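User: As part of a screening pipeline, I want to sanity-check one entry by hand. Below is the sequence and the SMILES for zinc ion. Please return the complex as C-alpha coordinates so I can compare it with the automated output.
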Amino acid sequence: MQCPRCGKELAQQRYESATVDVCRACGVWLDAGELERIIQTHEKAFTTSQIEETLKANAAGLPPGEKTGRAACPKCGACMDTFNYNYSTGIILDSCPYGHGVWLDKGELERVQIHMEHWDREASQKRPDWRKMMDKTSQDLADREARARQARRDMLGPAGRMLESALDALSHIPQQP
Ligand SMILES: [Zn+2]
Ligand SMILES: [Zn+2]
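Assistant: Here is the complex for your manual check:
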Protein backbone atom coordinates (compact mmCIF):
# COMPACT_ATOMS: atom_id res chain seq x y z
CA MET A 1 0.00 0.00 0.00
CA GLN A 2 1.10 3.54 -0.66
CA CYS A 3 1.14 6.54 1.66
CA PRO A 4 -1.91 8.70 0.89
CA ARG A 5 0.14 11.86 1.52
CA CYS A 6 3.44 11.30 -0.32
CA GLY A 7 2.86 8.13 -2.36
CA LYS A 8 5.78 6.15 -0.92
CA GLU A 9 5.30 2.49 -0.01
CA LEU A 10 4.03 2.01 3.57
CA ALA A 11 6.07 -0.21 5.90
CA GLN A 12 4.43 -2.74 8.22
CA GLN A 13 5.20 -2.16 11.85
CA ARG A 14 4.02 -3.52 15.16
CA TYR A 15 2.18 -0.99 17.32
CA GLU A 16 0.95 -2.46 20.60
CA SER A 17 -1.50 -5.23 19.68
CA ALA A 18 -1.82 -4.33 16.00
CA THR A 19 0.29 -4.48 12.84
CA VAL A 20 0.03 -1.07 11.24
CA ASP A 21 1.26 0.45 7.97
CA VAL A 22 3.57 3.37 8.50
CA CYS A 23 5.07 6.19 6.47
CA ARG A 24 7.91 7.65 8.53
CA ALA A 25 7.40 11.11 7.13
CA CYS A 26 3.61 11.36 7.07
CA GLY A 27 1.73 9.08 9.45
CA VAL A 28 0.07 5.74 9.87
CA TRP A 29 -2.70 3.71 8.22
CA LEU A 30 -4.92 1.53 10.43
CA ASP A 31 -7.16 -1.14 8.96
CA ALA A 32 -10.75 -1.24 10.14
CA GLY A 33 -10.90 -2.19 13.84
CA GLU A 34 -7.22 -1.58 14.59
CA LEU A 35 -7.74 1.83 16.13
CA GLU A 36 -10.25 0.38 18.59
CA ARG A 37 -7.82 -2.42 19.44
CA ILE A 38 -4.94 -0.02 20.08
CA ILE A 39 -7.10 2.19 22.27
CA GLN A 40 -8.12 -0.81 24.36
CA THR A 41 -4.61 -2.14 25.02
CA HIS A 42 -3.04 0.85 26.82
CA GLU A 43 0.56 -0.40 26.48
CA LYS A 44 2.27 2.80 25.53
CA ALA A 45 3.19 5.15 28.36
CA PHE A 46 3.10 8.87 27.71
CA THR A 47 5.04 11.66 29.32
CA THR A 48 3.23 14.31 31.35
CA SER A 49 4.09 17.00 28.83
CA GLN A 50 2.69 14.90 25.97
CA ILE A 51 -0.52 14.45 27.89
CA GLU A 52 -0.80 18.13 28.79
CA GLU A 53 -0.13 19.21 25.22
CA THR A 54 -2.78 16.87 23.89
CA LEU A 55 -5.43 17.89 26.33
CA LYS A 56 -4.71 21.54 25.66
CA ALA A 57 -4.98 20.94 21.92
CA ASN A 58 -8.21 19.03 22.44
CA ALA A 59 -9.72 21.86 24.39
CA ALA A 60 -8.71 24.33 21.68
CA GLY A 61 -10.63 22.43 19.01
CA LEU A 62 -9.64 22.32 15.37
CA PRO A 63 -5.95 23.10 14.86
CA PRO A 64 -5.44 25.85 12.26
CA GLY A 65 -2.59 23.95 10.59
CA GLU A 66 -4.63 20.82 9.99
CA LYS A 67 -4.32 19.60 6.43
CA THR A 68 -7.56 20.02 4.59
CA GLY A 69 -6.44 18.31 1.39
CA ARG A 70 -8.40 15.12 0.94
CA ALA A 71 -6.34 11.94 0.87
CA ALA A 72 -7.12 8.75 -1.04
CA CYS A 73 -7.70 5.43 0.76
CA PRO A 74 -4.55 3.31 0.24
CA LYS A 75 -6.72 0.20 -0.19
CA CYS A 76 -9.31 1.32 -2.71
CA GLY A 77 -8.27 4.82 -3.78
CA ALA A 78 -11.57 6.42 -2.72
CA CYS A 79 -11.45 9.99 -1.48
CA MET A 80 -11.43 9.78 2.32
CA ASP A 81 -13.70 11.73 4.64
CA THR A 82 -12.09 13.87 7.31
CA PHE A 83 -13.66 13.83 10.73
CA ASN A 84 -13.01 15.21 14.18
CA TYR A 85 -12.17 12.23 16.39
CA ASN A 86 -14.69 11.68 19.18
CA TYR A 87 -16.60 14.76 17.94
CA SER A 88 -14.65 17.58 19.53
CA THR A 89 -11.09 16.52 20.27
CA GLY A 90 -9.53 18.62 17.52
CA ILE A 91 -7.81 15.45 16.28
CA ILE A 92 -8.67 15.20 12.60
CA LEU A 93 -8.60 11.76 11.03
CA ASP A 94 -9.28 10.61 7.49
CA SER A 95 -11.47 7.58 7.01
CA CYS A 96 -12.32 5.51 3.96
CA PRO A 97 -16.02 5.92 3.04
CA TYR A 98 -16.09 2.14 2.36
CA GLY A 99 -14.80 1.25 5.83
CA HIS A 100 -11.29 0.05 4.93
CA GLY A 101 -9.74 1.99 7.78
CA VAL A 102 -8.39 5.34 8.94
CA TRP A 103 -5.35 7.45 8.18
CA LEU A 104 -3.68 9.37 11.00
CA ASP A 105 -1.15 12.07 10.27
CA LYS A 106 2.08 12.00 12.22
CA GLY A 107 1.49 12.24 15.98
CA GLU A 108 -2.27 11.83 15.76
CA LEU A 109 -2.34 8.21 16.91
CA GLU A 110 -0.53 9.18 20.10
CA ARG A 111 -2.94 12.05 20.61
CA VAL A 112 -5.95 9.78 20.16
CA GLN A 113 -4.54 7.33 22.70
CA ILE A 114 -3.76 10.01 25.24
CA HIS A 115 -7.21 11.42 24.83
CA MET A 116 -8.94 8.07 25.28
CA GLU A 117 -6.80 6.93 28.19
CA HIS A 118 -7.25 10.16 30.03
CA TRP A 119 -10.97 9.92 29.33
CA ASP A 120 -11.05 6.38 30.78
CA ARG A 121 -9.14 7.31 33.91
CA GLU A 122 -11.27 10.31 34.66
CA ALA A 123 -14.51 8.69 33.68
CA SER A 124 -15.12 6.82 36.91
CA GLN A 125 -14.65 9.87 39.11
CA LYS A 126 -16.28 12.41 36.89
CA ARG A 127 -19.12 10.43 35.41
CA PRO A 128 -21.84 11.92 37.66
CA ASP A 129 -20.74 15.48 36.78
CA TRP A 130 -20.48 14.68 33.10
CA ARG A 131 -23.89 13.11 33.09
CA LYS A 132 -25.38 16.20 34.67
CA MET A 133 -23.60 18.38 32.16
CA MET A 134 -24.71 16.23 29.22
CA ASP A 135 -28.31 16.03 30.41
CA LYS A 136 -28.38 19.77 30.71
CA THR A 137 -26.81 20.27 27.29
CA SER A 138 -29.26 17.99 25.55
CA GLN A 139 -32.14 19.66 27.38
CA ASP A 140 -30.84 23.06 26.27
CA LEU A 141 -30.57 21.86 22.70
CA ALA A 142 -34.09 20.45 22.72
CA ASP A 143 -35.42 23.72 24.14
CA ARG A 144 -33.55 25.78 21.59
CA GLU A 145 -34.82 23.61 18.76
CA ALA A 146 -38.39 23.89 19.96
CA ARG A 147 -38.07 27.66 20.21
CA ALA A 148 -36.53 27.89 16.74
CA ARG A 149 -39.34 25.78 15.31
CA GLN A 150 -41.97 27.97 16.93
CA ALA A 151 -40.26 31.14 15.69
CA ARG A 152 -40.15 29.76 12.16
CA ARG A 153 -43.82 28.87 12.30
CA ASP A 154 -44.78 32.30 13.58
CA MET A 155 -42.78 33.93 10.85
CA LEU A 156 -43.92 31.80 7.94
CA GLY A 157 -47.66 31.59 8.48
CA PRO A 158 -49.88 28.84 6.98
CA ALA A 159 -47.98 28.40 3.68
CA GLY A 160 -44.72 28.04 5.57
CA ARG A 161 -46.24 25.45 7.88
CA MET A 162 -47.25 23.33 4.90
CA LEU A 163 -43.78 23.63 3.44
CA GLU A 164 -42.24 22.71 6.77
CA SER A 165 -44.25 19.53 7.16
CA ALA A 166 -43.38 18.56 3.58
CA LEU A 167 -39.70 19.06 4.38
CA ASP A 168 -40.08 17.11 7.60
CA ALA A 169 -41.59 14.19 5.72
CA LEU A 170 -38.71 14.29 3.23
CA SER A 171 -36.06 14.29 5.94
CA HIS A 172 -37.54 11.14 7.46
CA ILE A 173 -37.08 9.06 4.34
CA PRO A 174 -34.28 6.64 5.23
CA GLN A 175 -31.03 7.21 3.39
CA GLN A 176 -29.89 4.62 0.88
CA PRO A 177 -26.60 3.04 1.98
ZN1 LIG B 1 4.18 9.58 3.22
ZN1 LIG C 1 -11.04 2.25 0.94
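Points to compare against the pipeline: The chain has a mean pLDDT of 76. The chain has three helices and six strands.
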